Write a sequence for this structure.
């Protein structure tokens, strides 16, 4: 069982880059491209299903923001234990091994989540319960606008100074319904506030009612409705 981290450990955790250099735990596939990642992750049947679903598709999502001056002083209650900590390269390799246990929808969500690491974002967090990763989420800073422009310029807006983004949350099926999302979101918002951030933005699909209820219940406000398009697997948003 992994050693449980304390709240002070979480807030003082070194950057992902420093973790990599100190432990030399870079996974074998860390430098692989999108195509090789797709081939590694999805079966031929999975790919045929995904292509059929995404020949052309239109969805909508909300862009939301949170004024951190209004963040509650205490986090929402969650069921069960677990502590939040920074994601490491060992976690990335471990999470790759989880694909075989997931259905196609969850496999696609986890794949999208881990692509953040492959594309250069470094501030990933995991909630670990009894040695198992139960929940994942990312925090993005304005210092990473170069990654947004290089890999997500049609999906994410660049951030302003004193602004951060939380995005790409994923809860493993066995841990859903335990209140992990609101608990972790509060922890990350509180950390952002402690770092001098004034405003946090996020995105949520219009049909993802559960996430929207959690975010709005925690003080996020809807800023705008954004259209999402997919054509032959390529996706973009119309801001």
């Amino acid at each position: 069982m992994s050693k449980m981290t304390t709240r002070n450990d979480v807030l003082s955790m070194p950057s992902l880059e420093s973790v990599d250099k100190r432990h030399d735990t870079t996974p074998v596939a860390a430098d692989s491209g999108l195509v090789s990642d797709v081939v590694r992750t999805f079966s031929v049947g999975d790919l045929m299903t995904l292509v059929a679903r995404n020949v052309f598709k239109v969805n909508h999502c909300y862009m939301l923001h949170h004024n951190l001056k209004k963040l509650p002083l205490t986090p929402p209650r969650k069921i069960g234990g677990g502590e939040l900590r920074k994601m490491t390269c060992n976690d990335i390799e471990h999470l790759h091994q989880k694909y075989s246990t997931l259905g196609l929808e969850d496999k696609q969500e986890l794949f999208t989540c881990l692509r953040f690491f492959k594309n250069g974002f470094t501030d990933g967090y995991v909630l670990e319960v009894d040695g198992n990763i139960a929940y994942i989420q990312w925090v993005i800073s304005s210092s990473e606008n170069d990654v947004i422009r290089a890999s997500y310029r049609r999906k994410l807006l660049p951030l302003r100074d004193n602004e951060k983004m939380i995005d790409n949350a994923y809860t493993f099926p066995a841990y859903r319904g335990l209140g992990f999302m609101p608990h972790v979101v509060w922890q990350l918002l509180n950390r952002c506030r402690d770092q001098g951030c004034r405003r946090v933005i996020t995105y949520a699909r219009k049909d993802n009612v559960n996430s929207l209820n959690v975010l709005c219940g925690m003080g996020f406000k809807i800023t705008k409705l954004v259209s999402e398009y997919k054509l032959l697997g390529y996706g973009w948003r119309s801001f």
Remarks:
- The beta strands are 56-67, 83-86, 124-129, 132-141, 163-171, 199-205, 221-231, 234-238.
- The radius of gyration is 17 Å.
